[in-house]
Amino acid sequence: MRSATPGTGRTLPDDLTEAITRAGYYPSLVCDVVESAVADDEVVAHLVHQETTFDHETVRRHVTVLVVTPLRLVIAHADDHAESEDKLMATATTETVPLAAVRGVMLTHVVAQPDSFSPGTHGRDLTLTLGWGAVSRLDMIPAQCGDPDCTADHGFEGTIASDDISLRISSAADGEDAVGRAMHFARVLSASIGTGTAR
Fold first, then answer.
1. 101 burial via Cβ count (<10 Å: 0-12, 13-18, 19+)
2. What are the percentages of helix, strand and coil residues in the chain, rounded to 5?
3. Residues above pLDDT 90, as percent of the chain
4. Fewer CB within 10 Å of terminal CB in the chain, N or C?
5. CB of 5 closer than 8 Å to CB of 20
6. Tens digit of each residue's pLDDT (9 = 90 or more) over 29-75
7. Half-sphere CA count of 192, side-chain side, radius 13 A
8. CA dist 59 to 29, 52, 81, 165, Å?
């Protein structure tokens, strides 16, 4: 079932519209930019994540919407953007990535009392990290040798990591259902890697 994006006549699936509305961050704006990026594609899976951060004395809200279509990953971000103290502004950005270009989907599970963990249940926290090569990070540290008394310069060693987006979903803050939705989204996207097509 698809419903019209408020004020546009455009359509998004009902469950995606409801998730954006539930996040509570300017849903008309977010629905509009997501619909524009998705266009007429089928929505195979989606994830909506809202977070609030504190910058000195300012509270900033941010929502991220991830959508998998049969051939693309659509990413939308919307943020508070204050031009002046008396004028509210928001920025909304979308990015579209071919599924064939997605390089990795990483899930980090934080599990309380792992000795009594039951398969099929969710952990306390989940971090979803996606990489498609838009951003690469180089972590450098001084190279070491096995001699603790060595004072020679051995240069540097490092690792290159690609983590274009990272979302932390907490069962305490976001609810058990949110963790389950994130895991479902990750499964769908993971299954498309290497094939270039969402299933």
1. middle
2. 25, 40, 35
3. 42
4. N
5. no
6. 999 999 999 998 999 999 999 987 666 666 678 899 999 999 999 99
7. 27
8. 20, 7, 11, 21
Residue 157 has φ and ψ, to the nearest 5°, of -135, 155
DSSP notation for 30-75: HHHHHHHHHTT----EEEEEEEEEEETTEEEEEEEEEEE-SSEEEE
Dig out the tokens for 21 from the structure.
Answer: 């509305």
Q: Using the structure block, give the residue that is written with the tokens 């619909």.
A: 35
Closest C-alpha among 194, 187, 138, 133 to residue 164: 133
pTM of the model: 0.78
Query: Roughly how many angstroms between the first and final C-alpha of the chain, as a whole number?
Result: 19
78-109 pLDDT, tens digit each: 988 766 667 788 899 999 999 998 988 998 98
How far apart (Å, rounded) are the C-alpha atoms in residues 135 and 137?
7
Residues 6+ apart with CB under 8 A from 61: 25, 50, 51, 52, 79, 80
Place of tokens 């006549």: 9
